[in-house]
């Protein structure tokens, strides 16, 4: 089959490699940088199939070359997954939900997340890649090679649809594909291929789908379900409340012992309180960081360390994060936190850079901004809140 793969930045190279191994004749075009196989040359050729990411502008001229599958749909055709396979997507809470659910699983498995891919039960780190659907190809190969009984895969902008359980973690929506598509609508469309589906309230659910809030409920630090309950202090935080609720509901659907979530602890970059160089740091820098959870993080930090001035590190490090962190939301977060000092992370010309007027200093990476924040905190006796949107 002659296949045209569009967008090598967002997983196209992995898809092209898998297609070639299958025996297909493949051209891969970088639609943004113009490297690789030339778009002009592809326009002159004939193809049997085109595959492109769901977020690509539908007006892109090469999409009309042949029947088109999304990268998610293409990956579904390319992988063989374990008998128990869970696919997780959503604007927020994907990584925490994935780790929480993995803590309930039994036997040998593979956990694939934006924080890394791990072999269980040893929790051995294998590699770290993006969570484009194409990255699931390697995760499925790893599962096959180690005889895994299960796979949990975090995926951006939807799921491939091979899952025995497909999960949407958040009803939050934003526009993709040059503003022509609803991200939630596309995610729900992809979930229809999964055998069982779990979604949150606020999403138009099909009759056979399960709703998280109908399976579990949370009051303060207690999570309850039909036949049991557990206590975990993290449930008092909105981000963990949603993720642990989703993981618990998924565990119920999979027949697992949900009680083990009582021992689940904070993940790096997800409301994780720690100390560096003698400075208290609340690390909430991840791909789901937004104004609301930044304001919540500041309240949590002040509750845990009352009286300390807060140095806020905020912004967006990598533009690969689909839903972005616009200047209006950054400014709303800064106003809500009211920090003693604000260090902004933004690349020149980016949407985040428009918030520079409200910042005391501007940096291009999380590491450099964090180092400066720690130095300032050492001098003033303050604490640091990391609230950058970045893949971790």
Automatic annotation (TrEMBL):
Q: Which InterPro entries match?
A: Mur-like_cat_sf
Identify a single GO molecular function assigned to this protein: ATP binding
Q: Which NCBIfam families match?
A: F430_CfbE
What protein is this chain from? Answer: Coenzyme F430 synthase
Domain of life of the native organism: Archaea
Species this protein is from:
Methanorbis furvi
């Amino acid at each position: 089959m002659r296949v045209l793969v569009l967008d090598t930045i967002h997983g196209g190279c992995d898809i092209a490699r898998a297609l070639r191994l299958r025996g297909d004749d493949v051209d891969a075009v970088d639609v943004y940088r113009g490297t690789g196989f030339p778009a002009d040359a592809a326009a002159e050729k004939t193809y049997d199939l085109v595959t492109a990411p769901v977020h690509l502008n539908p007006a892109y001229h090469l999409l009309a070359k042949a029947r088109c599958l999304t990268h998610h749909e293409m990956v579904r055709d390319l992988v063989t997954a374990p008998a128990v396979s869970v696919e997780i997507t959503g604007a927020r809470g994907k990584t925490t939900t994935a780790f929480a659910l993995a803590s309930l699983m039994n036997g040998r498995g593979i956990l694939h997340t934006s924080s890394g891919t791990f072999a269980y039960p040893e929790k051995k780190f294998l590699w770290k890649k993006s969570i484009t659907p194409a990255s699931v190809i390697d995760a499925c190969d790893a599962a096959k090679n180690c005889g895994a009984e299960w796979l949990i895969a975090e995926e951006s902008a939807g799921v491939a649809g091979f899952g025995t359980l497909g999960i949407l973690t958040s009803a939050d929506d934003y526009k993709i594909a040059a503003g022509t598509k609803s991200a939630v609508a596309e995610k729900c469309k992809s979930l229809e291929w999964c055998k069982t589906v779990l979604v949150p309230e606020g999403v138009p659910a099909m009759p056979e789908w399960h709703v998280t809030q109908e399976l579990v409920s949370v009051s303060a630090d207690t999570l309850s379900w039909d036949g049991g309950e557990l206590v975990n202090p993290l449930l008092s935080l909105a981000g963990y409340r949603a993720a642990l609720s989703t993981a618990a509901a998924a565990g119920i659907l999979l027949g697992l012992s949900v009680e083990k979530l009582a021992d689940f602890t904070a993940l790096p970059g997800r409301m994780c309180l720690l100390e560096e160089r003698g400075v208290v740091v609340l690390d909430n820098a991840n791909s789901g960081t937004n104004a609301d959870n930044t304001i919540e993080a500041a309240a949590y930090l002040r509750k845990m360390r009352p009286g300390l001035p807060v140095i806020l590190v905020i912004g967006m490090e990598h533009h690969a994060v689909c839903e972005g962190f616009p200047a209006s939301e950054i400014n709303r977060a800064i106003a809500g936190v009211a920090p003693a000092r604000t260090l902004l992370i933004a690349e020149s010309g980016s949407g985040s850079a428009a918030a520079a007027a409200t910042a005391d200093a501007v940096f291009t990476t999380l590491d450099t901004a964090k180092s400066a924040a720690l130095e300032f905190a050492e001098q003033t006796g303050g604490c640091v809140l990391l609230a950058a949107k970045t893949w971790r």
